[in-house]
Amino acid sequence: MKTDLHIHSKNSDGALGQEMIVDIYTSSGDVIAFGDHNTSELDSLATKKADEKGVIIIPGVAEISTDISEDKKIHLVGYGMTQLEAELEDFFQRYSKEKTEQAKKRCVESTRNPLKLKSGAQISISFEEMQEYFPGKPTYFWNDMFTILADKFNHSRRREENPFMELQDARGLLLGLKETYEKFKDSCIGLEKHLWRTDHPIKHLPINKVKELIKNSGGLICLPHPGQYKLRKKEIQEINPDALEVYSPKNNIHTLPIGYYLWVAQDLRLLISGGSDAHFTNDYKNLGKVNQGTSIPTDRKELTILQHLL
Question: What is the pTM of this model?
Answer without folding.
Answer: 0.87
